[in-house]
Design a protein that fits this description.
Layout: H1 2-6, E1 10-11, E2 13-16, H2 24-27, H3 42-60, H4 65-68, E3 70-79, E4 95-99, H5 102-105, E5 113-122, H6 124-137, E6 141-144, E7 159-162, H7 168-171, E8 178-188, E9 195-198, E10 204-207, E11 212-215, E12 219-220, H8 229-242, E13 250-261, E14 266-274, E15 277-285, H9 291-309, E16 320-321
Parallel strand pairs: 1-16, 2-6, 3-9, 7-15
Antiparallel strand pairs: 3-5, 4-5, 8-11, 8-12, 8-13, 9-10, 10-11, 14-15
The chain binds flavin-adenine dinucleotide and oxaloacetate ion.
Flavin-adenine dinucleotide binds next to helix 2, strand 8, strand 13 and helix 9.
Length: 322
């Protein structure tokens, strides 16, 4: 979407094995709360988060909010022990961040410290199709296909933008990207209006438009996309401890997805060579547990990298194909 809007001189084709509702993003809670990447400078992560927040803030305030599935969500992040940082790097990007009062903490007898703020949430089942429509309205083309080698694209496209998430492990042979399986439950709990997240990241409750997402698990190097019924029980138990009104709640669906974890998001240009052939690639993958929180910031950077390559294209006087 960012490339097709910023670089109208290019024709853009999205090729993917799976589209919504069958992507990692469809499993995600879609809440904007960043997870820090160890090896990406914090100022850069903050900038990506701010760009993403500003983009979704505008959608949430527009007449398109309902169709796009984007809205504000307030809530509590609570900790069993004092966290290292009382004010995380993103505190002044979200709205109204403050520490919780003793009175508020009384709701969480097992926790000693808390933060409260308003952030944004994307209902992925609405947001992803809305983005796809926006892309097609810009003239973008969509093809459903698995790519076994990036060289399949050589000659057909001038630049390849690699956004394959965990697929990059096989497609690009990147050993740094690995799966962290996450399982969530969609439940019917319309009385809940605030999110509750344990700061350890292992228990969260995110009210959405049509349902509430309960999570979440983090199983490193587990490639299975099948939800585990025992884990469902654990999620319900943990979430009911945080929010006792969830005891006996009716479960609509269970889902699992693979977070494409990496020490840093890979956002860079690469020139690949094979048998005398040359292919320009822009990588944009490895968003781990923060794909929603950072997606517009990283997409804008990928767009700038593509823009830098355009003058090098033989066909730059006509239309570049991506
Ligand atoms: C349980 C859970 C909860 C989460 N909650 C949040 C949250 O609240 N907030 C947040 O910011 N993030 C959250 N995330 C993380 C977020 O979902 C991911 O960071 C994000 O979805 C990654 O997006 P992506 O487009 O890079 O990868 P994906 O969504 O996996 O998309 C990659 C696409 O590439 C395609 N592909 C891969 N390989 C190939 C190939 N060889 N050929 C063709 N196509 C290919 C796939 O079919 C897929 O469509 C959560 C994740 C999980 C699992
Ligand atoms: O941690 C959260 O609050 C949601 C999330 O990003 C994940 O499960 O990956």
């Amino acid at each position: 979407v960012c490339i097709s809007e910023a670089l109208p001189q290019c024709t853009v084709t999205v090729i993917s094995e799976k589209f919504s509702p069958n992507t990692t993003g469809d499993v995600a809670a879609g809440c904007l709360i960043p997870h820090a990447f160890e090896e990406t400078p914090i100022q850069e992560q903050k900038y990506w988060f701010r760009q993403t927040f500003d983009f979704l803030f505008n959608i949430a305030n527009s007449a398109e909010a309902a169709e796009a599935g984007v809205g504000f969500l307030s809530g509590w992040q609570v900790y069993k022990a004092q966290p290292e940082e009382h004010f995380p790097f993103w505190w002044d990007v979200v709205l109204g961040f403050r520490l919780m009062t003793e009175n508020e903490m009384a709701k969480f007898p097992h926790h000693r410290f808390g933060q409260t703020f308003t952030t944004l949430k994307c209902q992925s089942g609405l947001y992803l199709p809305w983005m796809e429509k926006r892309f097609k309205n810009n003239g973008g083309d969509v093809i459903t296909k698995k790519i076994d080698s990036i060289w399949q694209l050589n000659g057909k496209y001038d630049i390849v933008v690699n956004c394959t998430g965990i697929g990059s492990r096989e497609l690009i042979g990147d050993p740094l990207v690995y799966p962290v399986k996450g399982q969530v439950l969609k439940v019917h709990a319309p009385w809940l209006k605030h999110f509750i997240r344990d700061g350890d990241g292992n228990t969260y409750i995110y009210p959405g438009i049509n349902d509430t997402t309960l999570g979440g698990t983090r199983h490193k190097n587990d490639w299975s996309l099948l939800p585990d019924p025992n884990v469902n029980k654990e999620i319900l138990d943990q979430c009911s401890k945080l929010e006792p009104s969830l005891q006996g709640v009716s479960v609509i669906q269970d889902m699992a997805g693979l977070r494409p974890m990496r020490p840093a998001v890979r956002l860079e240009k690469e020139v690949c060579y094979m048998d005398g052939r040359k292919l320009h690639v822009v990588h944009n993958y490895g968003h781990g547990a923060g794909g929603f929180s950072m997606h517009i910031g990283t997409a804008k950077k990928a767009t700038r990298l593509v823009e830098e390559l355009i003058p090098l294209m033989g066909s730059c006087n006509t239309k570049s194909k991506l």
